[in-house]
Write a structure and sequence with these properties.
The chain is of the alpha/beta class. The chain is 33% helix and 22% strand. The longest helix is centred in the last third of the chain and has 18 residues. The radius of gyration is 20 Å and the shape is globular.
């Protein structure tokens, strides 16, 4: 619902896209800014698949951040979808944050993203993340390298994990936003429904606990969510989708041990999200090559028409 109560000359608002290679810390930054987990985090690249909006409302501004999938060369239809999502946000926002990892040098991945900026008129900031992982003397050469590559409006080094310099970045963002309305209520932190966030929390736990060959083959579908009558308990039923029988065995684990652990960890986060006790039931289903089937992608929430 559009809320114009704060629409004054002093109030600023706008949409900010966070762009970068996989695993540079985009979701960590978003969760830190918003103050709670709305985007799942993993050390495995390409964790974010849909664009996730996080809303930060201040006394004089509202910033709507869009956490996009890490830009990479697609290997399947799901990858094509992820790239379309990331690139389309460049056309619809007021500001772009190009986030890079201070520990990694400038390479073909960064060059590929900069090429996408050539036809973009939107102001672009360079955000150098993970500065807590390098020696301070290493920072200036990184800044100089990027200055030669593109005329960024601002260059801001941060540590999203520790929160270093994040407030300065928010102040810089505010100066570039236009005067505008408060798009979302002050207490709303994301545009995604609870059902979406719940499936992402389950997928996050599976990402953390499984081996390398599993993560990108996982999708999670919420089959049922209902509050039990007369009780402060929400019954959640969800299915974890994998591509091969061998992956199903890994997800279930010996005597169901892995699935139980995924459920235990996911339930804690879901209870925190809903503010209620949760009874969580998980199943595992094999859908061969689902990442290349448009019908399956739509069923699992990857509808490119929405982007």
């Amino acid at each position: 619902m559009l809320n114009n109560t704060n629409e004054t000359k002093e109030f600023k608002s706008g949409f900010i896209s966070i762009i970068g290679r996989p695993n540079v810390g985009k979701s960590t930054f978003l969760n830190h800014v918003i103050g709670q987990k709305i985007a799942i985090m993993s050390d495995k690249p390409q964790t974010t698949r849909n664009k996730i909006q996080g809303v930060l409302t201040l006394a004089d501004a509202q910033m709507i951040f869009i956490d996009t999938p890490g830009i990479h060369k697609p290997k399947h239809k799901l990858g094509d979808f992820m790239m379309k999502v990331a690139q389309n946000t460049l056309k619809e926002v007021d500001l772009v944050l190009f986030m890079v990892n201070a520990e990694e040098g400038f390479g073909r991945g960064e060059e590929f993203i900069l090429e996408k900026f050539e036809k973009v008129d939107t102001p672009i900031f360079l955000v150098i993340n993970k500065i807590d992982q390098i020696h301070p003397d290493e920072l200036l050469p990184i800044i100089e390298t990027y200055k030669e590559k593109y005329p960024f409006k601002e260059i801001v080094p941060i540590s999203a994990l520790q929160g270093n310099n994040v407030n300065r970045l928010l102040d810089q963002i505010k100066t570039y936003l236009p005067n505008g309305p408060q798009y979302y209520p002050a207490d709303q932190v994301t545009d995604h429904p609870e059902r979406f966030v719940i499936t992402e929390l389950i997928r996050e736990k599976a990402l953390h606990l499984t081996r390398e060959e599993i993560p990108h083959s996982i999708a999670v579908v919420l089959d049922k969510m209902e509050r039990q009558k007369g009780k402060d308990i929400v019954h959640v039923m969800a299915t974890i989708i994998v591509e091969r029988d061998s992956q199903k065995g890994i997800i279930i684990g010996k005597q169901g041990s892995m699935l139980k652990e995924i459920g235990k960890r996911a339930r804690a986060d879901i209870e925190n999200l809903l503010g209620s006790k949760v009874f969580l039931e998980l199943w595992v289903k094999v859908q061969k090559d689902w990442r290349n089937r448009m019908s399956q992608l739509r069923e699992y929430g990857f509808n490119e028409d929405e982007y």
